[in-house]
Amino acid sequence: MNGAGLTANQNVLIGQIGLTTAGSQGPIRVQFNGVATFFVFSGGFITLNLFVVRGSAATDPIVASNRLQLNPGATTPTNLFPLYLIGSDYNPAPAAEIIYSLFVNSTVNVNRVGPESFNGCAYSD
Questions:
Q1: Are the CB atoms for 54 and 99 separated by under 8 Å?
Q2: DSSP states of the chain as a string?
Q3: What are phi and psi of 102, to 5 degrees?
Q4: For 23-82, how does the pLDDT look when each residue is reduced to its tens digit (9 = 90+)?
């Protein structure tokens, strides 16, 4: 199956958004969603992680995450696995631009076959 390879135990950027919140009145609420789909080769137990950070580096504060643990040898024969993430960040400080980044990692080598997307919006009173 074609796709971009994902090397085990490496954080890989899927998407990044910048939201302008300067001058916002009241609490700021940020909502976001993301998806990535993987082709997993048969084998042992695997953990796939999607996580969103407030910032641009994988080491920045995590504000949402989702994990999928599976054993492809005991699951569907297609070996295609979508992983979704829906989350929010409540009351970040207003800024000219708040950066959010979506990363993925896996405990074994897998292929990212898509679809992949990352979306978000900021709201205030």
A1: yes
A2: --SEEE-TT--EEEEEEEE--TT--S-EEEEEEEEEEEE--S-S-EEEEEEEEESSSTTSPEEEEEEEEE-GGGS-TT-EEEEEEEEEEE-PPP-S-EEEEEEEEESS-EEE-S--EEEEEEEE-
A3: -105, 125
A4: 888 899 999 999 999 887 766 788 999 999 999 999 999 999 999 888 766 655 567 888
| Complete edge-to-edge strand list for the sheet that includes strand 98-106 | 12-19, 98-106, 46-54, 62-70
Q: Of 119, 117, 121, 123, give the one whose Cα is nearest residue 37.
A: 117
Task: State the number of CA atoms in the 13 A half-sphere of 52 facing the CB.
Answer: 28
Residue 117 has pLDDT above 80, yes or no: yes
